[in-house]
Amino acid sequence: MPRRPVAVFAIAPWAFPGVFPPDVLARLRRSADVTDAVRLTSFDGPAAAEALAGAEILLTGWGCPRIDTRAVAAAPRLRAVLHAAGSVKALVDPAVFERGITVSSAAQANAVPVADYTVAALVLGAKLAFGRARHYAGGRDRALWQPGDGTGLYDCTVGVIGASRIGRLVLQRLRAFDVRVLLSDPTITPAEAALLGAELVDLDDLCRRGDLVTVHAPALPETHHLLDRRRLALLPDGAVLINTARGSLVDTRALTEACASGRISAVLDVTDPEPLPPGHPLFELPNVLITPHLAGAQGRELRRLGEFAVTELERLLAGDPLRGQVLPEQLPYSA
């Protein structure tokens, strides 16, 4: 029987039970020698040094410190970092790749609940459900919340900004609805967009035509305030903006003014800054719903991340390609 590699956890205590519940942990132990008593949240100190010295696989998650040059040097046997969460952009130092260490992320698994959240927001946003619910709860005149003229997702034009993992899952889910789909992404061709069920357009055109616009682009210097005052002004009256990507993609001041005018509505799971300060005007607007960055894996959904990481370990040991492998050249363009 081949020797099993030594695996070490680097994950916050609060995240561990959800990501690695007992049955997922038992499956992991069939492939690796691991103790759940060691869950590193710092690479400093003698306990971390001892764990890193023997680690061949690092199973990481929320709360893992940055794997920098010093951490790599302390782990001479390390061959893979398997991240049971989303982006590794802030986690993995170039030294990891320079050493030839394989990196995998469960970002694809984490994308699933974000796509589901987005579609729910599209359905409810198209009905103006959030503002109408506030009017209803406030005992306002029935005329303010009851009329549904011009609402509903049927026959809408939905603009998707970014053919990212999440963007592609949203496009896939939109096939179940009777909507027109526009896609703006400078990295794909019209033929590729057509295969995704969308018409490829430039961002200004998407903003002009989109009854609902959902953002799934990475946060890069060139995408900062991608939706600025000018582009927000292009949105049709009554449009709904959904952002589950990064708050910096939208100019918060310009969005606040546009929503305060009543011209457009918004569903925001991310903001800039995040969190917004207490009393920020966006919290008070009846046509804006802000959720606390909860679209990604939560509660029962967390185990999907652990299952993905364990599957990646099994594939690694079998010599199969990893489904979540991250290459160094991808990092600058990732979320």
UniProtKB/TrEMBL annotation:
GO molecular function, one term: NAD binding
Keyword Disulfide bond: no
CDD domains the UniProt entry points to: 2-Hacid_dh_8
Cellular component GO terms held in the UniProt record: cytosol
Gene3D superfamilies for the chain: NAD(P)-binding Rossmann-like Domain
NAD among keywords: yes
Keywords associated with the record: NAD, Oxidoreductase
InterPro entries named in the record: D-isomer_2-hydroxyacid_DH, D-isomer_DH_CS, D-isomer_DH_NAD-bd, NAD(P)-bd_dom_sf
Residue ranges of domain D-isomer specific 2-hydroxyacid dehydrogenase NAD-binding in the record: 147-295
Domain of life: Bacteria
Protein's recorded name: Phosphoglycerate dehydrogenase-like enzyme
Organism: Nonomuraea rubra
Organism lineage: Bacteria, Bacillati, Actinomycetota, Actinomycetes, Streptosporangiales
